[in-house]
Amino acid sequence: MRKHPGVAAVLLLTSVLAAGPQASESPVDRLIAALLGSNAMTADLQELTDVIGGRATGSPSNERAIEWAMAVFRAAGVEARREPFDMPARWLERSATATVSGAASFAPRVAAMPFSAATASTGLRAPLVDGGTGSDADLARLGTTIRGAWVLVQTPVLATLDDLFAEYTAASATEARLLPAGPAGLVYMSSRSHDLLYRHNASRGLDNVHPMLIMEREEAARALRMLRGGSTLSLTAAIELEPGGPYQSANVIGEIHGRDRPKEIVLIGAHLDSWDLGTGANDNGCNVAMLLDIARQMRRLGIQPRRTIRFALFNGEEQGMFGSWAYTRAHGDELDRHVMASSYDVGSGRINGFFTNGRPALLSLVEGALGAVGGLGPFTQLDAPIVGTDNFDFMLEGVPNVVANQESANYGPSYHSRADTFDKVDLRQLRLNAAVAASVTWAFAEMDAALPRQSRAEVEALFKNSDLEAQMRGMGLWKDWAEGHRGRAK
């Protein structure tokens, strides 16, 4: 039997909040109660995903999302502003098609990988060869046949978040291994079944000069079976892109000023952009709607934090966390006063703790901040750096930062794909997550403790004591740090 949402919220409050009238009167408990009973974030999410749709940075729909977010903040009475920043280049796919010919003829569905090069309008025709899993042994087996050929790389099925991170790492190693051998281009078998396509960034980012594709799994498997049976195949692929040099995008920043420490900032962030396959619901529309509703309910209830709470909806995240990077540059003179920066970017699965990103002293502070929502636990904190979302540049700048660690739910299989749509979001869990996020944000805005910003030397120690460098290389982010373009200067 399905309970009415309002009844479920009341029952949940009974278990989450401390008993007694005094507990229910505290600002954070009032905020949690409002979020658990709110349907506003559902309506916001539906408008962002169903109406605006996929929001690749630089696209018209992304610009509509910026204006929409500004309007939502302002309708809630929250001070909001648009903060422009420069994106290095435009990358949008107009079309991608492929035809296999030779011993058989068929037309698999394909999607261009972000930062793929375009082909001629007539397409690029070349032999299709079996790249195995892209290992050293596969490269040796291919020998000179790799030169000038399309290389089809086999992938395992993705089911979990761990699989997702492994896929990024494996692709980076594959590209570093195969591309110097001179192929015409790379084609990855989709790691999702049932013809599902998605976008994963080419690991070389804007430095990539090769055409690169994702091919639907079933037809990629068909081609590999034929190649391994001795058949000769060719692939003709046509990739049309919307070109462009540097252009301007914008982050959307909402703010509720602190009552007695207004210059100290607690930042809560989620990224507004998505890829254009699907409608960007779990990645990351649900968390955008969550942040908007936390701000809305704070204003509606008239509660004012001790420190300023800044709500950051970043753009350019999917293409390399460009919006949050731009934020750290634009607000460089304020970073010493950023008490904490948080990021919510793993869909609508249950928040089961936080990554504290190599700041052991954060562990006890986060534990204390979760006290108001202890009934939604258990929570486990992981003091390990994580790369791939908008905490990244705050970490490199030495600002205390956390990332919500969440159960995969629908996030992994639908990640960056055509299946990332409104119906995949766990709307009930999203409200519970809002309670957790609000509790942590409010606690950091109220607590006496404040960790200092780390020096560059302290940030560099993270590389010695963790796999941070390997993560950054896997995501094509190492070069900017190594060359001094990104991160704290001293």
Brief write-up:
By secondary structure, the chain is α/β, with parallel strands linked by helices. It contains 17 helices and 14 strands.
Explained architecture:
The protein is of the alpha/beta class and 490 residues long. It folds into two domains: 5-89 and 246-482, Aminopeptidase (3-Layer(aba) Sandwich), CATH 3.40.630.10; 92-242, Glucose Oxidase, domain 1, CATH 3.50.30. Helix content is 37%, strand content 20%. It has helices at residues 5-16, 21-24, 27-37, 40-52, 60-75, 136-142, 161-178, 217-228, 281-301, 322-330, 361-369, 392-396, 411-414, 427-446, 456-465, 468-474, 478-482; strands spanning 79-87, 92-102, 110-112, 124-130, 150-153, 185-189, 212-215, 233-242, 247-256, 261-271, 307-314, 338-343, 351-355, 401-406. The strands form two sheets. A seven-stranded mixed sheet has the order 1-9-11-10-12-14-13, sandwiched between helices. A seven-stranded mixed sheet has the order 2-8-4-5-6-7-3, with helices on one face. Strand 5 (150-153), helix 7 and strand 6 form a beta-alpha-beta unit. Helix 1 packs antiparallel against helix 3 (27-37), helix 3 runs antiparallel to helix 14 (427-446) and helix 9 packs across helix 14. The longest helix has 21 residues, at 281-301. It is globular and about 75 Å long.
